[in-house]
């Protein structure tokens, strides 16, 4: 067989610092000492590397970190899908293989970032009543993009998705520009204090002894799924839901003025809508605190309605964040993640 013949010659002809490895077809590949089948795969072709799942040396399957020896016949096993393993970066030897793996991940991540960024922009535009036609949309964003010095729409989207551009920061100006450019189309939409769409007729709340009544969430205590709640039958506006411990709810209902107006209620098991919640983070004041909060929230894919920070004296800063959460457990998780931020003293729901 051809490879066998070549092997003999090569052993004698080449330096000790390189290894010479054959493909099953007999092509010879020159790799630095310590190279693995991963290096070989990327040397054959970037696509072979990305699609590699394993390797055979001289017909036998070897671990991926196998150190190639001169004369080995190395067969790369591939799959249809491209999916290099991130850990390969540390296993492979050659800089070119390392860089190809890294760049694959950067590119993949980039696609995610672009998609995420687009979605965030759409959502935020909708919320601010910015309605643009398919032709107007790119034109409008491009203007902004040039100002922000991004080369392409995708770069811009990716930056939004990644958090390099913070939408809540640029929205006011964007809205202004929109109003200037498309003044006739202005449609003022107040940012709603509670989600516009609530699940079903009873808004995820079951009211004891009543079906299909109008349910309102009181603004004084903003009940979240999972909270202990109680309903108050209003005159003409259905049932208003409060947290059981809201200051507007009598401690002892039976001794209250109109006890018959207070009704027991509880949450339906699954409430799939986002609920708005405001958190207050008290922390040691430092540069980058607000950025850290933003990054933490954006890592959790939390939608941020507003975010601000103020000095509270004595080196303490108070960050207030109004966000969307999917219920009490989610909120608990968010609070715990925020508590991990360096210098955080307390995180509480307002
Ligand atoms: Zn209340």
The name of the CATH topology of the largest domain is: Ubiquitin-like (UB roll)
**What's the CATH C level of the largest domain?**
Alpha Beta
Small-molecule binders here are: zinc ion
Largest sheet: 5 strands, mixed
Number of helices: 10
Q: Tell me the radius of gyration.
A: 30 Å
Q: How far from one another are the termini?
A: 78 Å
Question: Which percent range describes the beta-strand content?
Answer: 15-25%
Topology:
Elements: H1 2-13, E1 18-22, E2 28-32, H2 37-44, H3 46-51, E3 52-57, E4 60-62, E5 74-78, H4 88-91, H5 95-127, H6 136-147, H7 153-162, H8 167-181, E6 205-207, E7 215-217, E8 229-233, E9 239-243, E10 262-267, E11 275-284, H9 289-299, E12 304-313, E13 316-325, H10 328-339, E14 344-349
Parallel strand pairs: 7-9
Antiparallel strand pairs: 1-2, 3-4, 3-5, 6-10, 8-9, 8-10, 11-13, 11-14, 12-13
The protein binds zinc ion.
Overview features:
Ubiquitin-like (UB roll); 4 domains; 4-stranded antiparallel sheet; 10 helices; 23% strand; elongated; disordered N terminus; binds zinc ion
Summary of the model, kept short:
The chain has about 350 residues and is an alpha+beta fold. About 35% of the residues lie in helices and about 25% in strands. It contains ten helices and 14 strands.
Q: Could you characterize what this model shows?
A:
The chain has helices at 2-13, 37-44, 46-51, 88-91, 95-127, 136-147, 153-162, 167-181, 289-299, 328-339, and strands spanning 18-22, 28-32, 52-57, 60-62, 74-78, 205-207, 215-217, 229-233, 239-243, 262-267, 275-284, 304-313, 316-325, 344-349. With 350 residues, the protein is of the alpha+beta class. It folds into four domains: 2-93, Roll (Ubiquitin-like (UB roll)); 102-185, no CATH class; 205-267, no CATH class; 275-349, Alpha-Beta Plaits. It starts with a helix and ends with a strand. A hairpin with a 5-residue loop joins strand 1 and strand 2. Helix 2 (37-44) packs across helix 5 (95-127) and helix 5 crosses helix 7 (153-162). It binds zinc ion (ZN). Zinc ion binds at residues 218, 220-221, 242-243, 246, 248.
């Amino acid at each position: 067989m051809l490879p066998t013949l070549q092997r003999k010659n090569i052993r004698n002809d080449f330096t000790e610092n390189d290894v010479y490895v054959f493909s099953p077809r007999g092509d010879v590949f020159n790799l630095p000492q310590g190279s693995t089948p991963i290096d070989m795969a990327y040397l054959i072709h970037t696509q072979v590397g990305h699609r590699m799942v394993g390797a055979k040396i001289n017909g036998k399957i070897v671990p991926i970190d196998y150190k190639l020896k001169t004369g080995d016949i190395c067969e790369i096993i591939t799959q249809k899908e491209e999916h290099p393993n991130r850990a390969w970066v540390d296993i492979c030897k050659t800089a070119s293989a390392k860089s190809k793996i890294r760049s694959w991940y950067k590119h993949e991540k980039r696609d995610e970032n672009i998609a995420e960024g687009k979605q965030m922009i759409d959502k935020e535009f909708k919320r601010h009543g910015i309605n643009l036609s398919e032709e107007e949309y790119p034109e409008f964003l491009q203007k902004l993009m040039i100002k922000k010095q991004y080369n392409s729409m995708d770069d811009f989207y990716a930056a939004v998705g990644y958090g390099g551009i913070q939408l809540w920061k640029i929205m006011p100006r964007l809205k202004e520009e929109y109003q200037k450019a498309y003044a006739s189309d202005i449609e003022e939409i107040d940012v709603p204090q509670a989600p516009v769409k609530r699940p079903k007729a009873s808004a995820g709340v079951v009211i004891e002894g009543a079906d299909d009544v109008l349910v309102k969430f009181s603004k004084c205590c903003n009940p979240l799924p999972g909270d202990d709640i109680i309903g108050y039958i209003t005159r003409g506006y259905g049932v208003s839901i409060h947290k059981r411990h809201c200051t507007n709810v009598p401690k002892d209902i039976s001794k209250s003025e109109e006890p018959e107006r207070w009704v027991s209620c509880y949450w339906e098991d699954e409430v799939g809508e986002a609920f708005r919640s405001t958190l207050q983070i008290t922390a040691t004041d430092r540069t980058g605190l607000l950025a850290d909060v933003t990054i933490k929230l954006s890592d959790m894919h939390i939608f941020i309605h507003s975010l601000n920070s103020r000095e509270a004296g004595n080196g303490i800063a108070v960050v207030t964040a109004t966000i969307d959460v999917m219920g009490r457990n989610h909120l608990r998780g968010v609070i715990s993640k925020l508590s991990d931020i360096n210098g955080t003293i307390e995180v509480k729901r307002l």
